[in-house]
């Protein structure tokens, strides 16, 4: 198995707050990794550092064996690592399809054209395909601010996938989505991801969702990784149960950690 | 090259303007020429507003365009109008490529103030330059068009008017395409969500840079045409109140359509001309109330009067 993403003693301090402490992570190609941890455990900080949004205080990040320390988010995106956001990051005054079309144009070239129309027939057709793939074709011409949270999340993820990344980091793809819709949303996402053959790491608070989709779990607590392994083992770990998931009975009562 | 509906309409309006030039009185021709030339500068302001930046120093490029035309004729023997105008745009592009490196690091009020600062620096330099007539500026040499010299006075005024209308048409068509092209739409995307643009693998800074340079070229063309029309340039062109006027006209017209700055500039010129004539001491107040009324009743500018029924359509 080849390692696609590796961090070595990654640290991040915000003043007195230690948001990441000696994170040593190796993600292999093709894995689907779930990240769990209570609020403020450092999950988003980890994604932000890996994608170049936050500068680590110390440590090393390797993507496909090469250091990406100090690279800009756009360089890292172009290198093949895409992400979605805890709060969907879209263009609020544009329609859903225009959001996708902008992403398609960006994926084609880093230098957008000065005179040829952005909304070309080819891009519109491709965007419509993506709308169908993600099951949001009903919102084609709605402003993104007017569509439900779940659809917004899907558009956010679709935009990340448009650049054909090798690795996708999803920050709480199901947050703000009702419990019944979570599985549908994740099925849609995981289908798309499988078709693209992408390595995935996603942050999730709902342990049922985690167990259903991942092959490996990283448990964060207070900036540290306290467990790393197969879902069954990690979720059964006493420390994880004490600090992250709470004493979760086998029923699906509650929302996992919060 | 296929023309869309907007482009055909723009062409027809331009043709009507040119024909109107043959029958209209000289004072009106002059007023329209200045208004349309200023509208080109305003187009530059609007291009930046679309990307979320308000330039309070677009007078810089207006002045560069004007002074290059003036200096080219007086000192370097460049008498051909087209050559002089092109040179003005070229100088503006070079200056914008330098200043843009710094300016595109800034946003919002910081960008506005910094752009203002640069135009005031030029104003200061020109005021100190005795050879360029200091605060009085200097006159623009008689010019030619492809070797033909229009007769001074009415003839040359009519020629500038036609040139301004034609330039306005070309710029309007180009900007119309530009706003729908990759860079135009993605500059709006930068305004809406810079983080997302960055995570699509694009550099917001370089997009804003390209947009800034393009806007400078358009504004310099407006300055050059103004110099040809008035036959005179002075440092006032770079003064902050001049830049303020361009922002004013941009807000008056709104961002809804490429024609809006032209309409707004014409309305502005008429309001100002008549206000100065009939109520000489209160014309600024009248402009103030006009802007207030536009912001309150037509927050998307005068163009929203035209596009009332077409809401939802994206230009
Ligand atoms: N920009 C910042 N400045 C200061 N402190 C920050 C910053 N970003 C995060 N933190 C702190 O770092 C810690 C980790 O935050 P992070 O957002 O990574 O948590 P998280 O695991 O994503 O939590 P959640 O489940 O709420 O999203 C928290 O204590 C947070 O307050
Ligand atoms: Mg988070």
From TrEMBL, chain A:
One of its GO terms (cellular component) is plasma membrane. Residues 5-247 form the ABC transporter domain. Keywords: ATP-binding, Nucleotide-binding, Transport. This is ABC transporter ATP-binding protein. SMART domains: AAA. GO terms for molecular function: ATP binding; ATP hydrolysis activity. It comes from Thalassospira tepidiphila MCCC 1A03514. It comes from the Bacteria.
Automatic annotation (TrEMBL), chain B:
Keywords: Cell membrane, Membrane, Transmembrane, Transmembrane helix. GO terms for molecular function: branched-chain amino acid transmembrane transporter activity. It comes from the Bacteria. It is found in: Cell membrane. It is a multi-pass membrane protein. CDD domains: TM_PBP1_LivM_like. The chain crosses the membrane at residues 12-41, 53-76, 82-102, 109-127, 158-175, 246-271, 283-303. Its main location: membrane. GO terms for cellular component: plasma membrane. InterPro entries: ABC_transp_permease, LivM-like. This is ABC transporter permease. It comes from Thalassospira tepidiphila MCCC 1A03514. The lineage of its organism: Bacteria, Pseudomonadati, Pseudomonadota, Alphaproteobacteria, Rhodospirillales.
């Amino acid at each position: 198995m080849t390692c696609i993403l590796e961090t070595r003693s990654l640290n991040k301090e915000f003043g007195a707050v230690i948001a990441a402490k000696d994170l040593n992570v190796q993600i292999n190609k093709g894995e689907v990794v779930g990240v769990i941890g209570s609020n403020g455990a450092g999950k988003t900080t980890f994604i932000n550092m890996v994608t170049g949004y936050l500068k680590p205080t110390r440590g090393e990040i390797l993507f496909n064996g090469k250091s990406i320390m100090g690279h800009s988010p756009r360089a890292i995106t172009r290198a093949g690592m895409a992400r979605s956001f805890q709060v969907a990051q879209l263009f609020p005054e544009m329609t859903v399809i225009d959001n996708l079309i902008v992403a398609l144009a960006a994926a084609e070239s880093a230098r957008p054209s000065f005179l040829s129309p952005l909304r070309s027939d080819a891009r519109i057709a491709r965007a419509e395909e993506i709308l169908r793939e993600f099951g949001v074709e009903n919102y084609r011409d709605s402003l993104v601010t007017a569509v439900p949270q779940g659809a917004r999340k899907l558009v956010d993820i679709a935009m990340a996938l448009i650049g054909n990344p090798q690795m996708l980091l999803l920050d709480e793809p199901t947050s703000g989505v009702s419990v019944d819709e979570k599985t549908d949303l994740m099925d849609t996402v995981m289908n798309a991801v499988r078709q693209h053959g992408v390595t995935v790491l996603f942050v999730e608070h709902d342990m049922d969702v985690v167990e259903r989709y991942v092959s490996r779990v990283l448990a964060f607590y207070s900036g540290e990784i306290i467990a790393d392994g197969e879902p069954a083992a990690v979720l059964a770990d006493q420390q994880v149960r004490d600090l992250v998931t709470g004493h979760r009975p086998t029923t699906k009562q509650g929302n996992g950690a919060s | 090259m296929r023309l869309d509906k907007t482009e055909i309409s723009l062409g027809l309006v331009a043709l009507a303007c040119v024909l109107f030039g043959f029958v209209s009185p000289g004072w009106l021709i002059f007023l329209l020429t200045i208004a349309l030339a200023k509208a080109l500068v305003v187009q530059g302001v609007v291009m930046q507003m679309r990307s979320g930046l308000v330039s309070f120093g677009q007078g810089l490029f207006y002045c560069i365009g004007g002074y290059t035309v003036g200096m080219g004729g007086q000192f370097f023997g460049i008498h051909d109008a087209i050559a002089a105008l092109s040179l003005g745009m070229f100088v503006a592009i070079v200056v914008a490529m330098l200043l843009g490196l710094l300016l595109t690091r800034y946003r919002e009020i910081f960008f506005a103030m910094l752009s203002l600062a640069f135009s005031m620096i030029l104003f200061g330099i020109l005021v100190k330059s005795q050879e360029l007539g200091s605060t009085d500026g200097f006159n623009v040499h008689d010019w030619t068009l492809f070797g033909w010299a229009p007769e001074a006075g009415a003839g040359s005024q009519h020629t500038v008017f036609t040139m301004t209308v034609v330039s306005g048409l070309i710029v309007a068509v180009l900007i119309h395409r530009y706003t729908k092209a990759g860079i135009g739409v993605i500059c709006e995307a930068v305004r809406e969500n810079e983080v997302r643009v960055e995570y699509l693998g694009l550099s917001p800074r370089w997009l804003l840079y390209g947009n800034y340079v393009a806007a400078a070229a358009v504004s310099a063309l407006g300055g050059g045409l103004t110099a040809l029309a008035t036959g005179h340039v002075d440092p006032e062109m770079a003064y902050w109140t001049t830049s303020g006027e361009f922002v004013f006209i941009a807000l008056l017209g709104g961002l809804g359509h490429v024609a809006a700055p032209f309409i707004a500039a014409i309305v502005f010129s008429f309001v100002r001309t008549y206000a100065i004539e009939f109520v000489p001491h209160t014309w600024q107040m009248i402009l103030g109330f006009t802007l207030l009324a536009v912001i309150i009743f037509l927050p998307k500018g005068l163009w929203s009067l035209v596009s009332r029924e077409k809401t939802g359509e994206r230009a």
